[in-house]
Amino acid sequence: MSESSNHRTPSTYTTHERIPFWRDGRVLGVLAQILFVLVVGTAIYWFISNVAANLGRLGNQQFVCLYGTNESWSYRCAFDYLSSEAQFDISESIIPYTTSDSYWRVILVGLLNTVKVSVVGIIFATFLGTVTGIARLSRNWLVRNIAKTYIDIIRNTPLLLQLFFLYFVVLLLELPAVGSALQPFGLPIYISQRGVNFPNVVTLSAFAVWFAFVILGLIQAQFLWMYLGTREEKTGKTSNRTLWCVLSFLMVATIGWLVASSTAHNEGFLVARAERVREFADLKPMMERRLGVENLDLLPEYLDNEQISAEDVAAGALVVCSLEGSASETNLTVQLRTAGIPYEVNRFERPDQAIEAYGSEETACDIFVAPKATLAAERDVLENGANHLIVSVRETPARWAMPALEGFNFVGGGRMSLEFTALLVGLVVYTAAFIAEIVRAGILSVSKGQSEAARALGLSEGQRLRLIVLPQALRVIIPPLTSQYLNLTKNSSLALAVAYPDLWRVMSIIGNQSGRSIQPIILTALTYLTFSIVISLFLNWYNKRIQLVER
User: How many CA atoms lie within 13 A of 100 on its CB side?
Assistant: First the structure.
């Protein structure tokens, strides 16, 4: 072959062929994105057009203006009807509620009920799930398998089925009537078909002063903690910072309690001047004269010796007029029981009803207990107001209100309805099973060398978990724990199954009663979305704080 045939000029090379656009990956990617945007835009346009058309047809029913004519309607009037009277009752409410309140008030009641069951449920589910997760890794065969069985059964059973079983089978059928309520371990806790009654803390007007001292105690305990820590770094000598900070806080809180109790004079009772009662201590001689005994402190002995009958004591008991749920009643009755004075209480919804009963001879209330401002205002209603005296009653920042059986129900103390109890127990037991597995996985993610080092240092198993393992496991536990908290909050909407008046239930009632279905659904969706965002933001913030900072 000749030399000229082996060397070709540049013009003899074949040119590079262009790839057709239907085979060009970059072009196809751009076209696919354009097509996706068009499809999504068309779907959104169709959805909005369809919703607008349907809303237009429903305008006369869904968007009637509350302050216009029957024919006037506008999208701006969508939520006007929520200012109307609700006209239906709610079985359980944190805040005062009557049937004459507006739909907005009903929504607030349902919202607070949902927040209550969600917050309490998250706290108890976290505790139960953590304990169960640790028990799942126990060396004890029985403890480990009990935890495993509980997790396997609960996780693989629908929550709705568990709620039905718990409410209709366990609580409604198995719990006793009010008269024979269960009292576990002899504690002042009563479980019956009416719910769970338990002691409750009631705050009085002096609580605000004491709470200010509590805040002050927390602040100075924080400063003391930092001061002792700085001194330890400088001197190298350790000090029990926890003990000193707790003692300093308790000292400030105790001083605040004494100051608040001695400076508050807002509680009292109204009594006729003819009874010769000028202070609380005078009630005791009055009752001794009435019952015909020399010493009221010996009343139990008089009853045992049959010197006086129980019927005579009941007939001569001090009759107290009070308002329902009044902290003044709790403050007075605690001191009456301490003094050994027999009493009975007549409760009324409004002060005017209570003062009317106090002034009438039929009811014959001996005293009317309430804040002094209320007593002073109501005394002017009496025909001879000057013949009645307001007597001061010692008050403390808070009192324990104990439940007591009166008639066919318990009064005083706190109460959890059967519906709330069923929903709370169901949510806690169900969610804790999932949290237990998250805690177990978090503990297993910590290397064994950490535990071996802790044991080598002589730490107990409790110290090893609390100081070494769990703080490191939190980095793995917190992210999936967020989902479980969100699930518990959203699962609270199953309260409809046990007739607990949460947000979803009251929204359903509003929709059925008013004939407006769109607005309640929108408000419910926005509310649960807000719950989810708040919980996620808080746990994400906490997760960032506990993450290890790597260099």
Answer: 0
Average pLDDT value for residue range 395-414: 85
Of 2.30.290.10, 3.20.20.100, 3.10.20.600, 3.40.190.10, which CATH number belongs to 266-398? 3.40.190.10
Contacts of 520 (CB under 8 A, 6+ apart): 507, 508, 510, 511
Q: What is the CA radius of gyration of the chain?
A: 35
User: What pLDDT shows up at residue 132?
Assistant: 95
Residue ranges per structural domain of the chain: 1-57, 103-186+416-546, 203-262, 266-398
Task: Kindly provide the b/e burial profile for residues 78-114, where b requires at least 16 CB atoms within 10 angstroms of the residue's own CB.
Answer: bebbbeeebeeebebbeeebeeebebebbbbbbbebb
Question: pLDDT tens for residues 306-341?
Answer: 888 888 888 888 999 999 888 999 999 999 988 889
Token pair for 351: 């002060």
- Strand 404-406 and strand 200-203: the pairing is unpaired
Q: Model pTM?
A: 0.78
**What class has domain 103-186+416-546?**
mainly alpha
Query: Cα 175 to the chain's mean position, in Å?
Result: 24
